[in-house]
Every structure is written in C-alpha cells, then in structure tokens.
Amino acid sequence: MIKASIIGATGYTGIELIRILKNHPMVSISKLYSESYKENKADEIYPHLKNNLNLNFCEFSKENFEDDCDIIFLALPHGHALNLASFFINQNKKIIDLSADFRIKNTNHFYEWYHKKHTQQELLKNTLYGLPEITNKINYNHINFVANPGCYPTAILLATIPLLKFNLIEMEHFVFDAKSGVSGAGRSLQLNSHFCEINENINAYQIAGKHRHIPEIEEQLNKFTLKNIKIQFTPHLIPVTRGMHITSYFHLKDNVTEKNIYESYINFYENSSFIRIYKDNILPQIKNVKGTNYCDIGFQIDPRTNKLIVISVIDNLIKGAVGQAIQNMNLMFHLEEDLGLHFITNYP
Amino acid sequence: MIKASIIGATGYTGIELIRILKNHPMVSISKLYSESYKENKADEIYPHLKNNLNLNFCEFSKENFEDDCDIIFLALPHGHALNLASFFINQNKKIIDLSADFRIKNTNHFYEWYHKKHTQQELLKNTLYGLPEITNKINYNHINFVANPGCYPTAILLATIPLLKFNLIEMEHFVFDAKSGVSGAGRSLQLNSHFCEINENINAYQIAGKHRHIPEIEEQLNKFTLKNIKIQFTPHLIPVTRGMHITSYFHLKDNVTEKNIYESYINFYENSSFIRIYKDNILPQIKNVKGTNYCDIGFQIDPRTNKLIVISVIDNLIKGAVGQAIQNMNLMFHLEEDLGLHFITNYP
Amino acid sequence: MIKASIIGATGYTGIELIRILKNHPMVSISKLYSESYKENKADEIYPHLKNNLNLNFCEFSKENFEDDCDIIFLALPHGHALNLASFFINQNKKIIDLSADFRIKNTNHFYEWYHKKHTQQELLKNTLYGLPEITNKINYNHINFVANPGCYPTAILLATIPLLKFNLIEMEHFVFDAKSGVSGAGRSLQLNSHFCEINENINAYQIAGKHRHIPEIEEQLNKFTLKNIKIQFTPHLIPVTRGMHITSYFHLKDNVTEKNIYESYINFYENSSFIRIYKDNILPQIKNVKGTNYCDIGFQIDPRTNKLIVISVIDNLIKGAVGQAIQNMNLMFHLEEDLGLHFITNYP
Amino acid sequence: MIKASIIGATGYTGIELIRILKNHPMVSISKLYSESYKENKADEIYPHLKNNLNLNFCEFSKENFEDDCDIIFLALPHGHALNLASFFINQNKKIIDLSADFRIKNTNHFYEWYHKKHTQQELLKNTLYGLPEITNKINYNHINFVANPGCYPTAILLATIPLLKFNLIEMEHFVFDAKSGVSGAGRSLQLNSHFCEINENINAYQIAGKHRHIPEIEEQLNKFTLKNIKIQFTPHLIPVTRGMHITSYFHLKDNVTEKNIYESYINFYENSSFIRIYKDNILPQIKNVKGTNYCDIGFQIDPRTNKLIVISVIDNLIKGAVGQAIQNMNLMFHLEEDLGLHFITNYP
C-alpha cells in the first residue's frame, strides 16, 4: 500500500482528495495536515466523512515532521509549495503539487504573472508537468515531483493538442470561452462566491489576457508547436457548484472534414481511458462528467465560416485537480493509470 | 455473478440502477428494457455511460421473453407491476419492485389511495416490505419478491421507528414536514418540473392528507405499534435535483433527554452501516448524503415546548429508491448488505 | 416631498430601500450613509443603479451630522439602533428601525435572547411595532418611531392572528416550519452563504427554540390572546436568493370549515391591499410574491387529523423588511398606505 | 389611453406583456387571447396577477372578432403571424409582432432558415425592424407594423453596431459566445427545460451556424456595413431563469484605444436611456439588468492579441422581447420612448 498525506486537507481540493484516496485500493491515508482545523476529528468538521474516516486533522511543522508517508499532496494556495517542496524532496517523499508554483518552466513568465520570484529553479527543472494524456508516459520513470495542471489548462489543452498534432487548424486566433463552477474559487469567503451574487447570474472575470492560467496554457502549446502562440481566454463563473465547459474556436485548415477531426481525436486518445470523443452532433455537457475523471470532447464545423467549434467539459475538482493528481500518482508508482478512478456521474 | 435485468431502464431510477449495478462486484447486467428507446445503444441516449456500458436498450414482451437473469428490477410507474409480477414469479425470477404496487398490505387502503383494485392478493402476502434497517433480516430467507419502500416513507420511518421502539414519544400529533428534490418527480415532462417553475421557488403539494405515501407510512407505524396512528405529512418541492430532508415534530414523553434519544438511535442502528446518527447539535444536510446510500439523522429537544425535532436526510434516488433496492438484492442473495454501496458524497 | 436618509445603505436591505424610495412618488433621497463605502458614487459600487441615482455614499458621524431629512431608516445590524435612536429623536427626525432593537417590549426577554441590556426603555415605550395589517391604524397618529417587524414574524403573524381573532384554532401546539432565501442572511461573508454550501442543499438552523425571532412572535401572539403561547419554530435555508415560505400547523377547533377560514381571512384583511387569500386548494408559492410587497396566504384542512395547514409566503426583503418599512412610512406621513408599492412579480 | 390586446397572452412573453402594460400610464388592456386557457380568469391561472387584473382569457377567432383595441401584440410561436397580420392591418390595428415572421427582409433567407415560404411580401416591405437604439427614429412615423427583434440579435447588435459605425473593428472573425436563461425557451414542456437537465449544467445548442437568429443578425450587420459579414454564434443554456450574456470577440483596427471605444459607445447612445456603458474594467452581469429594460455594455482590449472583448447583458424577456415591444409601441404612438419602462433590478 502507498501511504499518502495531504497538506491543505480541508479546502475543497483537499477534501476531495480524501474521498478518492480513501476508496483507492492501493492507498492508505497517513496524515491530514490543515491550518484551519488543527485537532478536530475529520468527520466532526465534515460529517459526510462519518463512518468512512477515523482520522484527525493535524498541524504541519517542519520541526516535528514525522510522517512515514510515501507521497505528499500539496493542496495549498499558490506560493506555499515554493517554500515546502525542497523540504519534502530531502525527506525522500514523492510530491504532487496542485498549485501553480511549479507548472511554468519559464521563470520570467512566472514572475510576470504571479509577481513572485521563482526560488527553486533547480527543482523546477526536474518537475514533470503532469497532464497524463499529453505527457509522454516515459517521463514518469524516476520522477519524484509532479506539477498538477490547472483546471482551465486541462480542459483547453486536451481539446487543442490533437488538432495541432494532426495539423488541422491554423495556429492563430484561438478563442477559448470558458465557464466554470464556483467550487473552483475554493472554500474561502469572498463576495464572488456569495450565493446571492452567483445565483441567477453569470459573470466574466479577468478577461482580455489577465487570467494566470494563460502562461501555463501558452507554454504547453508553444512547447508542442515550437511557435509563439497567443491565446484569447475568457473565464466566466456560472451558478453551478462543479464543472467546467470550454467553447473553443479555431480557424480550420482547408479541406478538413468532421471525419478527419473525429479520427484524429480517436487516434490521439486511443490509450486514454478518460477521454471520450462525441460524434453525430451530440455535444458534451457538464452533467455527463460531474463527479468523474472524464474529459468529454465534441465538435462541429461551421461550413459558412470554416471555423471549428470544440466543446470540452470536465469536473473542475476531479479531472481539473484531484482525479488528475491520482492519475499522476498511479503513473509515478507504476500502477494502472485509472486505478481508483472509475466514476460514473450520478445522473441526473 | 448475479445476472440482473431492469424493466424501465431509462427513467431516473432505471438509469441510476444501471450505474450502481454496473459497479457492483457481484452483478452483471443482463437486459435493459425500455418503452421509450427500443433499440438504441445505451450510451447514445445517455452519453454519461460512454466507455462503461456496451448494451442496447430493448423492448420487453412476455411473448418473446428470453432472459436468463436471476433478478428483475421493476422501475415502472405505479400500476404496471400488478400486471407483470406473477409472470416473472412463474419464470422463477426474483423481483424487486420499485413502485407502490406491493407496498401496502391492506388492499382497501390500496384501493382508496391508488384507485385501483389489487388483483394479486396472494402474491402480496408473500411480498416483503424491504426497509432493511427495520425489517427483521430473518424475513429475507426464502423471499423472492421485495416491495421497495417509497422515498418519503424511508426517510420518515428511519427517523421514527426507534423512538417508538424505545417508547420516547407520544403516539399522536406526528408532523412530518418534507422537502424533496425534483428528480423524485421523474423525467417525464410536466409543468412542475419545468426549470422556470422550480427555480427560485418552493411549493407545497398534496398537503393535508392527500399524498399517496401516507397509507404506506401509517401501515408501517401501525404494524409496529399496533395502534391507529394518523400522521400529518406535508411534501414540498425545492430547487435541488437530488435529496430529501424531513423535519419531524414529536411530543416527547416526560423526562426524556437528548442522551436517551441518541443512545436509542445508536442502539437501534448498531448493525446498520447506512444510518449515521449526529450529536452535539450538528444537523443533517442533504449535501452530506447526496450520491450515497446513507440516511443521516440528527435531533434537538426544545425544553420550552417539550417537543423533539428530528431531521433526517437521504438521497431520494439512492437510499430512497435504487440503493435500497440493491441492499434488498444483497440480502436476498445472502451477500453483505452493503456490497457495492460504499459511496461518499462528492463534497461540495 | 418627504426627504429620507438611510443609515446602512449598502447592505441588502439598504440597497433595496434605495430602489423603492427612488421610485416613490412622494420621496426624495437625502443621504446614504455607509460604513463600508464612505465616498464612492453609489452606481460605482452598485452598477444596477446607473442612470437612476446620482448620489455618493457618505460616512455618518453624530458630530458632523447635517441632514435636513424628515425620516431616517436604520438598516443596521442588531444593537446599533440602541445607540443611535435617541440622537435622531432629539434632532426631530422620524425613525424606522429595521433591526430587532425596539421590537420587543419585554426587556427581560430582550436581554435573554439578544444578550444585551436594553438601555432605551423610555423610548421603547413610545415605539410602535409596525405590522400595518395587524396594528391598529390609529396608533400611527403622532408616532415618530416605528420598529419594523422581522421577516419570519411578518409571515407567521399574518397567517395566525386572524385565526386567533375568530377563535378557529386551539392555542397550543403551533408548529411553524419556515423556509427562507439566503438574502435574509445579508451580504456579509460567512460559510453558510457560500454558494457551494447552499446550492443543492437545504439546512435547518437554530431549531428547537433557539431563533431570536421567537420572542418577537410570541410577544405579539400573547398581546393579542392574553395567553402564554409557546411556539415551535424551525427555520431552514433553501437555495433561492429571495423569498420566505411558512408552513403552519394548527389544531382546529371543532366544526370549523374551510369556508369559515376563508371568510375569516377575507374579513380580517378586507382593507389590506397587500394580503391575498387563496381558495380552491391553490397554494401560495414564493414565485408569486418575489419582488412584491404581497403576503399570499392559502390553506387546507386535513379531515383525517382535524389539523389546519396554512401556507404563507412573502419576499423576505420587501414585505419582510423594506416594503413594510415604506408602508410604515406612508402611514406615519398620512399618505396612502400602498403608495409606491404596487409591484407585480416578474413571472417567471 | 391606448387600448392594447395580446394574442398569446399566457406564454412567458404574453404574461410579461400583461405586467408591463398593466403598469403603463397610457395603456389600458383590452383583450387577452389565449389558445391554452379560453375562459379562465387570468389570476386563476396566474395567481401572481391577483388584485391587479380583473380580466378573463378568451379565444381568438377572426369570425367573431370584436375588439376596439388600438394595437395588437402578437406573442405567438413562429409562423402564426404570417397568417394573422393582414387580417389586423385590414382592421386598422397597429401591430407589434414578437415572432420572427417579419424580421428578415430577404425572403430567400427566411425560407432557408425557417423552412417556410414568406406569403406576405408586400406587408413585409412596410414592416419596420424595431430596434429603437439602432433604427432611425424618423422611420417610426406612419408605421403600423413593427417586427420586434429577437433576444440574441438585440444584445449582439447593440454591442456591435457602434463599433462598426466608428470603424473600430475589422469586419471579419466575429465571434459571439452567448449564454441565455431558460425562460427564452418558453413555457412549453421539453426535455431541455426540465429542471434536472438544466440545473448544475450548461449546454451549447445549435452551434456552428445552425441557430435561426443568425440570418437576422447578419442582415442587420450587412444592411449597416453593405458588406457580407458571416458571424460565428454559439448559444448556451445556463441554469438561470432570466437573462442573457454575450461575450463578443472582435479584431481591433490598429491604434484603437479603450478611450476611443468608450467614447464611441457614449456618443452613439447619447440619446438612448436604456443603454449603459461601463468603464474602468467593471464588467456587466445579468444581475444588474434582470427585470429591467437596460442593455449594459462593458469591454476590455487585450494588448497581447489586439482583440476587443465586449460583454453585453440584457433581460431576455424585457429588453430582449417585451420591454423592447413597449419601446416600439411608445414610438409608434409618439410617446416618450421610455414611458412605463423605468425598472431598476431587485438586487440581489
């Protein structure tokens, strides 16, 4: 059994990690570290865990760290992993970091977008950007530190990379219009997660090149294409708890058919059990992936404009965060990639 | 492996049965019968099943019935099981009926509330009302036909029976104020499941002794107490998809303490892994049981009025329907009662 | 024109007051005092006011108070009006206080439930509890200070008082099961107004005799009946922004018919244009009163139990707060009671 | 007083027309024709109208038509106005048609998109496309028949036309990503307005050049520019009852600044009291216009891509349908354009 601990166990990603790790056949949970609740029984704070977890939350400190876990999940706000990562590496722990701290290789970009100097450049070089359907699986050999992708980048890159690989689209004028559930903003209190502000509303935020997932997406696209692609990315908050829906607009190359596109996706993802490609004009919806690790992709060509519209949907907390982290863990430990991740959505 | 078939596979309970049976370690699905979709691939109609189920829906007819299944789940509107049950009994199938047709032993009451003559009185005698936490487990031996309880009766009886058993409450003035998610009304189209009629609203319906779950609840209470209890039951629709929340009001007997109540519940449910009893004034919420087979129960005494208020919550489609049906199946086949039902809610 | 100012103009009640006062034909807004925004233009913080209001928020201080308004609305958290009221009385302002500070005449009860000594007992005696449909209109003559009722008390008293007046119900075992929208909890940040905690959920809170609206309701019932009634009151939060729905349970006196009840309500409210009584088994719903000053009341008798179930619904921010305050203002200034309050809901 | 009648009074637009006409100072309602309810009192079917409207619904027939109204609002499904319009013209009634039947001047396009031959070409020539902020006001003189624009075209054209007028954007690669509340789909029953299908979901529909509002939008753009613009338009359904949010993407011409854009909008709409232009990076939200006749417009330039992103929001049933119809009526009768339309949203 793999012994796993979580730092930041009481946020929305932490608590979802607990659920999935608890049901994972090859994992036992070691420690649950939390700043917010330092002594409480887990099911006292989160009664949905009652009968399932007999653990207390505890405080993390480097000084008194005694945890024989094999892997640490860092589920912390951006900036914290920078300070903690080398400590755990020195303790011979494997690490999966769910924050942005080690996602961007270009430290100038990191500074520009996160207003923080990257103090761990050596470690950054040995970190794997872990989007398992895109990343070469061979890269997981001997890797100890995975930077888990952001939710928006996951849904966008999975829709886009196969089209680039098979040379189906022009490399400019990418528009990604994104709609996200509110859980992506976390459990901390802020006016724009107040029920009355979200309910019966939709609002765009950090539009026109301001959202911090842009450099992450562009770095991956440019690594893949060796170009200097600039994307248009517009995130919106919609009144749902979970789920993410991306409407992508691409300029199609000449003479590309829907059949070409379908086959390219199928081909690209033939070994990826979490990607489902739709055809016959059926379009993905959040409700088909909520609570699962799937990314569903559908598309149509507009013959009037020769544009390709692709819809991709994920559960922002699972394929967009925790489920993907478990996929990465499975690969780091040479387990089946989908172990412990066979969820079907609770329809309706 | 148990081979299971579903009649009525494409309604909300049918589709949820598919999901849980698919993941059950001792079950393989045999046939999925549907009136609405007679030939389609299941994942064509319900894309959330893609990659998980390679079956077609098919039409049921007695004439051409060739199905070597061991058990049939009837997930049909009220009235249909009356016509089908004896056919399957003659075929030596076990049956779990999710409709109301065989829940009420008193056929006069059945006629009075359902306006239908009960044509299967012999069969009715051999049917078990299958609320596993209340029903004596010994009754499952040799039983072939289980009537699966209604959603409201499940949440109400689980909150009430232990209080009667330990003689903690007066046997009159029971008030059950119930709030249900919209999925309980099914997938068929009606004005009161139109989004714009439900959203930003709450409405009571069939109040003041009109709802058909009343005779079912009263029969069970009266069977248990040998009294003639009449309940007050008020159902409301709230703008959530899944979940049921019952606020029960009881007159407390003298000198009963919260400790007495807690211990009575704990005692009554000591072997029931799906019932979770809350204490320390924490109150159950739908969000802790959604997507699970749990019934969570919490309570407080009002010393000003000597009333006991009990809150019980379930997922109406799981513990209130399909999950309970699987519990019943497990018991009929002498499996562990909770096999294939270990769900933790996707919080938040 | 009446010149009106608001203290606490930027909370949910404050901002709704602005809207209604702005459209009131006999009012001009004088000043908008706010702690949160001390200089901003109103439509900069609340863009929905753009083109409608050319005013800045400003800071209130007793020292620099120069405001020639005729009436002050206090839309502040509980406790603040205690300190401010006499100041405004000395300035010859009329006052409508939307907090609980002056609602309860029994100062022992006030202390017991609000944990605060009532320091303004003299003033309290001269304060009118302003529920216009219940309060004798003659009492508004010469009154300068109105305590505006709470939202739950408004919806509960309007449903109950006529039944007591016409002696239709027993004076015990009152059960009020209440469901409220989230705006009632205000705009301040707290976990139980976080979208993800409210959405797809319902939760009871402060049950079993703990909610602070209980002494207010009981004082009014007891003033009316000269009895010592104790009520059972259970508030729940439902995932809607606005609206309040009360399901009331009463023991009926012998031989009371639905016709008796209907006529009693009609009779009691014959001069009350904001109370609408339903018949023919149609039940009130939040969606019929949202955005209006109406209280809709419907009911049914259960002949099986001889209980009367009454449903009353209001918009918690209008009839439950701001609209009622304007009604009170109209009466204080001898205007038509319904002036500026003719709203029909935006169905759907 | 203007006497107004509605054909199709019981759908969502019909019922909203009733509300606004009822409160309009220069209108009295004559007749309410409905197919669904032919004799009922209006407030029996729609209790929210109680105390406000003492009218019955009635059946329309050409044979027995006796209605001395001045204006008829046609709130019918597409196709019906084609058959009715000339009848009313012959009766000397003014007409506002809320369907698509007379919006598109190019009858080939009408046939192509609506699969119906346009049988009223003469009448069509004399019909005014009534988007009052764009249409020259002089055109309203002597006009008797107005085709009321669609909801999507309203929100899109109001955002786009000023940019074209002032030559700020390229005339290609227009992308309009639209999100609409469910009331736009009407009150008729269909699976994609079932609460459980919409709630906790978002879905795109009729994407890639399939939605029928496309020819209407393009005709207006091309009339204005004398070009042959093809747009990309992607509608989505979001889980809100009312509201429409358009995210528009434009290629900016060189050296255009945010100041240029702001001033162009302000200039274009200087006499339009229902258009509100945002600045300082504040973005429009549905919640600021819900229940009102406003169209709020905000925008930002992305200097990285030289794209302009514009957000426009309306209430789909008011500015997107009924409110705009009343604006058109006011102009046809030479009243103030905004008479009876001064609504501020019920925030929150």
From TrEMBL, chains A, B, C, D:
Tagged with keyword Cytoplasm: yes
Gene3D superfamilies tied to this protein: Dihydrodipicolinate Reductase, domain 2 (3.30.360.10), NAD(P)-binding Rossmann-like Domain (3.40.50.720)
GO annotations of cellular component type: cytoplasm
EC number annotated for this UniProt entry: 1.2.1.38
Subcellular location: Cytoplasm
Enzyme class: oxidoreductase
Listed InterPro entries: AGPR, AGPR_dimerisation_dom, AGPR_type-1, NAD(P)-bd_dom_sf, Semialdehyde_DH_NAD-bd
Catalytic activity: N-acetyl-L-glutamate 5-semialdehyde + phosphate + NADP(+) = N-acetyl-L-glutamyl 5-phosphate + NADPH + H(+)
Main subcellular location of this protein, as a coarse class: cytoplasm
GO biological process: L-arginine biosynthetic process
Pfam families linked to this entry: Semialdhyde_dh (PF01118), Semialdhyde_dhC_1 (PF22698)
GO MF annotations in UniProt: N-acetyl-gamma-glutamyl-phosphate reductase activity; NAD binding; NADP+ binding
UniProt-annotated catalytic positions: C151
Domain Semialdehyde dehydrogenase NAD-binding span(s) in chain numbering: 3-142
Pathway assigned in UniProt: Amino-acid biosynthesis; L-arginine biosynthesis; N(2)-acetyl-L-ornithine from L-glutamate: step 3/4
Domain of life: Bacteria
Described function: Catalyzes the NADPH-dependent reduction of N-acetyl-5-glutamyl phosphate to yield N-acetyl-L-glutamate 5-semialdehyde.
Family to which the UniProt record says this protein belongs: Belongs to the NAGSA dehydrogenase family. Type 1 subfamily.
Protein name per Swiss-Prot or TrEMBL: N-acetyl-gamma-glutamyl-phosphate reductase
Originating species: Silvanigrella paludirubra
